[in-house]
Write a structure and sequence with these properties.
The protein is built from 10 helices and 11 strands. The chain starts with a strand and ends with a helix. Helices cover 41% and strands 17% of the residues. It has 2 domains: 32-117, Rossmann fold; 141-272, NAD(P)-binding Rossmann-like Domain (Rossmann fold, 3-Layer(aba) Sandwich). By secondary structure, it is α/β, with parallel strands linked by helices. Helix 6 (141-152) crosses helix 7 (172-180). The strands form 3 sheets. A 6-stranded parallel β-sheet has the order 1-11-8-7-5-6, sandwiched between helices. A 3-stranded parallel β-sheet has the order 3-2-4, with helices on both faces. Bound molecules: ligand L34. Ligand L34 is lined by residues 49-50, 53, 96-99, 121, 141-142, 236, 249, 268-271, 273-274, 276-277. Residues 49-50, 53, 96-99, 121, 141-142, 236, 249, 268-271, 273-274, 276-277 line the site of ligand L34.
């Protein structure tokens, strides 16, 4: 058996079409154009690509965007004062500070500085807390994108054994939380594995749905999964360059061996990545809508 490929590229396109309509409505009815500020500190090649894609997606949808590139040696104080200004800027509904940040900057101070109403990444502790207790808030883009991918490709999560590998604040922990909630796209039994898990294979073999976000290539191979599993590969690892100088990308899952056993699997590229971007657009539109005083 060879797995069905779950295309994030295709599903993201569907969601973009839905968003285009909403954005038109917002403009027509309320005269509001959603606005996103993206901040990139330094010149990490992967971060540059991701922020570039976010800006491109804004342009494609008719979202106003400000892309701010700061030198890698900028001080934390300067970054915080820029965020203060954006918090007050009424054209900007969403603020995104691309992570990771250089060493001299304390990431959590930066995240705290963002107005939670403009925190379209859903990283501010106010939003994280609201997510956990299920109040209305911005959901983090990658985990929310994963839920949408599953729902829109017809994968049932209710009562499923979901195994997450990786415990980061931006993927593992929030996806664990969303999946265990009693929501139409969750309601699963969830296990989270990490570097201190005693018997990783015991858990991965039990998974109906396996979500892998370890940040390392080939964390999961075909012999570690059961027949018929649905695999979501969150990783994007740059493992070298083609002779033409293009980056070679692989996920956290050994695609070739796992696809022989899986019922469905997301590819890298073209899986979770495009979903992260489109969910950011969705949050930005929501932030703009929330800003309307009726
Ligand atoms: N603040 N920092 C903040 N918010 C985020 O949501 C992110 N993330 C992660 C890193 N730092 C962040 C992203 O945007 C990872 N991430 C991200 C976004 C998009 C893609 C991958 C990671 C993506 O579109 N990947 C393409 C391949 C693009 C390429 O590298 O050439 C894909 O098809 O998977």
């Amino acid at each position: 058996m060879s797995a069905k490929i779950i295309s994030g590229t295709e599903i993201a396109k569907q969601i973009r079409e839905e968003l285009k309509k909403e954005i038109k409505e917002l403009k027509k009815r309320h005269g509001v154009t959603p606005g996103l500020a993206t901040i990139l500190v330094g010149d990490d090649p992967a971060s540059k690509v991701y922020v570039g894609q976010k800006e491109k997606s804004c342009n494609n949808l008719g979202i106003y965007s400000e892309k701010i590139n700061l030198p890698g040696d900028i001080s934390e104080k300067e970054l915080l004062s820029l965020i203060e200004k954006l918090n007050k800027n009424s054209r900007i509904h969403g603020i995104l500070v691309q992570l990771p940040l250089p060493k001299q900057i304390n990431e959590s101070r930066v995240i705290y500085a963002i107005d939670p109403a403009k925190d379209v990444d859903g990283f501010h502790p106010v939003n994280v807390g609201k997510m956990v207790v299920r109040e209305k808030c911005f959901l983090p883009c990658t985990p929310h994108g994963i839920l949408e991918l599953l729902a829109r490709s017809g994968v049932q999560t209710e009562g499923a054994e979901v195994v997450v590998v990786g415990r980061s604040n931006i993927v593992g922990k929030p996806v664990l939380n969303l999946m265990l909630q009693k929501r139409p796209t969750g309601n699963a039994t969830v296990t989270l594995c990490h570097t201190r898990t005693k018997d990783l294979v015991f858990h991965t073999k039990r998974a109906d749905i396996l979500i892998v976000a370890t940040g390392h290539p080939k964390t999961v191979t075909g012999d570690m999964v059961k027949e018929g599993v649905v695999v979501i590969d969150v990783g994007v690892n740059r493992i070298g360059k083609t002779p033409e100088g293009k980056a070679i990308l692989v996920g956290d899952v050994d695609f070739e061996s796992v696809k022989e056993k899986a019922a469905a699997i997301t590819p890298v590229p073209g899986g979770v990545g495009p979903m992260t971007i489109v969910m950011l657009m969705k949050n930005t539109v929501e932030a703009a809508r929330n800003s309307i005083v009726e």
